[in-house]
Each structure stands twice: as structure tokens, then as C-alpha cells.
Amino acid sequence: MGYKEKLKQILNQFNLLKDTLKKKIDEIGKSDRYSEEYKVQLINEAKEEVKATQDQLTKEAMKVIEDAKNKILGEKATVNKDQSFDLKLNNTLKILEMIGADLNLEELNALIQPFKDDYYTMKILRVIFVKGGMKGINEIFGYDTIDSRLQSLDELGRTISHVFFGDIESANTLQVSIALNYINEV
């Protein structure tokens, strides 16, 4: 089961907890047996009773997100960086500095080719291309799906923590549901 399905299950459990609490609060509010002060006390006690479960669901959701991020981070390949790798990289950086803007797409691509398997080196070279205003950035480097997926998961984590950590009675779980629908699980 993917992380989206796990998060949807946790969201369903959270909504069930929220509905159960709402029913209990409604029953307390409708009761004629209690004074208004005692109703407030009972409502606060009911919220405290679900707090541990709410915290547990929040921790589970954040763990699922962290696991998904770690899986994505595992896709970031690095190569064995020996002395020849460093020498090639230094030569490439010098060439880019001196005549990089004058090279055509084919020449730039050939220059970058030895580093294609190293995520971090390619990320740095991409920044150098962007700052140097060189052509062919998208053709050579493509779209960085790893960082965009991590960014989406970070945003989802912030949304979940904002919704789940707050007052469960007023939690807007629709935000989490919408955020889950817009994330690609790739």
C-alpha cells in the first residue's frame, strides 16, 4: 500500500474520532441535567479523552510522510568520486566559467555527460547553468522530480500537522483531503 492510501486511512480514522467527539459534545450540549459551567467542563474532558488518539494519528501520519521522503531520497544516486572524478569536475567547471556561454547544446551536453549518474553534482551544475544564463538547461538536466516530490511531501506534512495538532473540534480535514488528491505517488 502506498503512502497516499496510508494517509487516507489515517485521515478517515481522524474524521471518525472527530465525529465521535462531535456527537458526544452535542449530547452534552443538549442535556438538561448539567449546568452550563459543568457542560464546559465535560466538553473539555471529552476533548482530553481523544487527545492521546489524536496525537497518535498525527505521529502516524508524520511517520508515513517521513518514510515516503526517505524512499524518494534513496533515489538520489551518487557515484564513486575518486581523484579522476574530481579532476573532470574541476576541468568542467573551468570550461563552463571561461566559455560556457559560447558552447552549443551538444557541446554542453557532452561536457556534463560524465556526471549524469551523480544527483548532487548534477544539482550543483544545474545551479551553475541557471546562474550563468546558459542555454539548454531543461534539455540537459530535465525536470527535477525528486526535489519537487520532496517539496510536495513537506507541504503535505505542514498541512497535516496544522490540521491534526489543533483543536480537533474545528479541524478542517478537507484541506488534507484536497492536498492528498493533488500529490502524485511516483
Keywords:
76% helix, mainly alpha, 8 helices, rod-shaped, 186 residues, 0% strand
Description:
It is a single chain. The chain has helices spanning 3-30, 36-73, 83-99, 105-112, 119-132, 137-141, 145-165, 173-182. The model has no long low-confidence stretch (mean pLDDT 88). Helices cover 76% and strands 0% of the residues. Helix 7 runs antiparallel to helix 8 (173-182). The relative contact order is 0.14. With 186 residues, the protein is mostly helical. The protein is rod-shaped. It has one domain (1-186).
Please sum up the structure shown.
By secondary structure, the protein is an all-alpha fold. It has helices at 3-30, 36-73, 83-99, 105-112, 119-132, 137-141, 145-165, 173-182.
Determine the N-to-C terminus distance.
13 Å
User: Can you tell me the overall shape?
Assistant: rod-shaped
Poorly predicted ranges? none
Average pLDDT, to the nearest integer? 88
User: What is the number of beta strands?
Assistant: 0
Order of helices and strands: HHHHHHHH
Biggest sheet descriptor: none
Number of helices in the DSSP assignment: 8
Structural class: mainly alpha
Specify Rg, calculated over alpha carbons. 26 Å
Strand coverage percent: under 5%
Helix content: over 70%
Count of structural domains: 1
